[in-house]
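Task: fold both queries, return tokens.
Query 1:
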Amino acid sequence: MGWLAAMLAALAIAGVFIWLAILAPQAKGLGDYVSAGLGRFFGMQTVVLFWVSVWVGMVPVALAAAGAIGFVVPALQAPGARLAVTIAVIWAGVLGAWGGPRLTARIEGLTLAAGLAPVLLVASVGWFFFSPEVFVASWNPHDAPLAE
């Protein structure tokens, strides 16, 4: 349900940007869209707040990535190594953003595929090992009747 909600929210946001692109074809970004409707002051405020949100939001993403990498490579679990990985992930994001929107979209697609691959693998292969008896026993350890 969470993936469905996230997909619907992403599609709604994409629809808004499609609509804005039609209404303001000369716009080159979020700040230009806001400037076209509300003026330069609010356009600039939008750009500043967007960049602050990117700076603040990149830190937990980098920390999560460093934690996941440290789980896979135990040598990177030490505080100094984790700090180095966190900084490297932040700079990798910065360099990817400097590559432009096309490169950014490709990186996002790659990370989405990398994140979904294990989930889809476990979900699809797991069906072959599913045992209803184990499932019921796990959720009913006291042998209570399912219907009373």
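Query 1 returned. Query 2:
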Amino acid sequence: NPAPVRGAKVEGVEVFGYGCPICARFQPFLDAWEKKLPRDVDFSYLPAAFGPDPDHCWDDFARAYYAARTMGLKGNIHDRIYKAKFEQGRIETCDAIPAVFADFGADPGDFASTMRSFPVTAAVSRAHDQALRWGVDGTPSIVVDGKYRAGMTRSGGPEGLLRTVDWLIAKQRPLHRGKR
């Protein structure tokens, strides 16, 4: 169910998971691409909340993403969480997540409590529902204007995914001209 075109900017959303090794490898490519985005593109992130999973911690990492936002934590969180998980081995279980956010100045107990708070639970539920509406079944996925979903392929890799997203943005751009 495509969303109606709104506003003057083309919207792009990466559906990601901090427990996803492919997302971790994709992030440097996405960072470089995002820095070059034209002003008429609004890009954001949506954590995948695919349900409880002790290997990937989908819901717990989604909770962590929203808890960090709720607590106003700043800094390059994406890169540092991926590094803590996949390079440093600091997140071997879902219960280890709050301790890593101490790197951003959060008290692990307060962070864990915020992860379980009503506003965070509601945000995770909305993220889950949005991913279902978009038909997202894997990460990383990028949704353009709520209409097109692109995922990474073995043959295209990160560069291929971003070329596809650039093409989709160009395809949608004329629909945004003259809108506010």
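Both queries returned. Flag for query 2: The radius of gyration is 16 Å.
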